[in-house]
Design a protein that fits this description.
Length: 299
């Protein structure tokens, strides 16, 4: 039995009625078990006995567990809030796919109750650190990502030309719409739509996937998580290139700049209720196997 939580924070897009309804119900469920709940001060979640509000940036410092209610985007947002506090995350899926937010709406109360009672497992995930080096800027811009760091062209119909380097060694010159550096966790996100493989989260690996490459030989590759990836634009007619970390804009990569992607020193801890099965999630979300084929979907 794992330690129980005395205070939790609920995080979600409360403007979505489905999310707001679930958050309100979860708050009542938790306080009924003697657990204090904190929510974003701007949320519409009703306050009352055991439910208090704080500015969103202070939630991770107050709670022992962050509960992300929504899709994977909400959980990634919660991960950014927890970045400096090492608070574990629990994902309850009220979004679409939900590879990270793995508790379904149908099992929400049972599985949430299991976690509050200390019946859960810990799953430590490693992330990335992106450094955007611009000679014209006074200091480099940095950000962390749990899923992926993406270089992509913007506001143009032109192809972008760039080079990739791994651990200081030249790898390839690319032409296309961009490049994805994904963790094993993020292999089921943008990299998957670029033809990248699914990598189980327990592997220390990165997926490097070109976005709409100009040549068929430019294929995704898998490298060690400990590699340092460098991307440089090749001199050409002006093409704006933007860098995002888990979908959040870090900044533009100038023609004479460099994007460095390296292992992050921080980790994110996900909690899973009893019965968690990564392959069951893949079958459910990607419609694999006998269940989808014969009309017997996984529970």
């Amino acid at each position: 039995m794992q330690p129980r939580f005395k205070t939790i924070a609920l995080i979600g897009r409360f403007a979505d009625p489905l999310v707001a309804e679930a958050m309100q119900a979860l708050a009542a469920h938790a306080t009924g078990r003697g657990v204090d709940v904190v929510v974003d001060a701007e949320s519409a979640i009703a306050r009352g006995a055991g439910v208090s509000a704080l500015p969103e940036q202070e939630l991770a410092g107050r709670a022992e567990l962050l509960v992300a209610v929504g899709g994977d985007g909400t959980l990634l947002h919660a991960a950014r809030l927890a970045e400096a506090s090492d608070v574990p995350l629990l994902g309850i899926n009220r979004g679409r796919l939900g590879f990270l937010a793995d508790i379904s709406a149908a099992q929400m109360f049972d599985r949430f109750g299991d976690v509050l009672e200390g019946r859960y497992s810990r799953d430590v995930r490693h992330g990335l650190k992106a450094r955007l080096l611009d000679p014209a800027a006074s200091q480099e811009r940095t950000a962390r990502a749990l899923n992926d760091v993406v270089l992509q062209k913007r506001e143009t119909g032109r192809m972008m030309d760039f080079e990739t380097w791994i651990d200081g060694r030249f790898v390839n010159a690319h032409g296309g719409d961009g490049y994805v550096v994904a963790t094993a966790t993020g292999s089921t996100a943008y990299a998957l739509s670029c033809g990248g493989p699914i990598v189980t989260p327990n592997l220390d690996a990165l997926v490097l996937a070109p976005v709409s490459p100009h040549t068929l030989s430019d294929r995704p590759i898998v490298v060690s998580r400990r590699c340092v990836i460098e991307i440089r634009l090749i001199a050409q007619a002006p093409v704006r290139a933007q860098v995002t970390c888990d979908g959040v804009v870090l900044g533009d990569l100038p023609p004479d700049g460099r994007l460095i992607v390296e292992p992050s020193e921080s980790t994110v801890t996900l909690l899973h209720p009893p019965g968690y099965d990564y392959f069951r999630i893949l079958r459910s979300k990607l419609h694999w196997g006998r269940g989808a084929r014969h009309g017997q979907p996984d529970a």
